Amino acid sequence: MARPLRIEYPGAVYHITSRGNEKKPVYKDDRDRDNFFTTLDKVNKRYNWLCHAYCLMDNHFHLLIETPEGNLSLGMRQLNGVYTQIFNKRHRRVGHLFQGRYKAILIQKDSHLLEVCRYVVLNPVRAHLVEDPGQWRWSSYGATAGREKLPACLTTGWVLGQFSSKRRKAEREYREYVHRGIGKASIWAGVRGQAILGEDDFVDRLTEYLGRHKDVPEIPKSQRYATRPALEKIFNGSIVSDKPKRDRVIREAVEKFGYTQRAVADYLGFHFTYVSRILNER
Question: Which CATH number fits domain 12-190: 2.40.128.50, 3.90.1150.10, 3.30.70.1290, 3.40.50.11810?
Answer without folding.
Answer: 3.30.70.1290
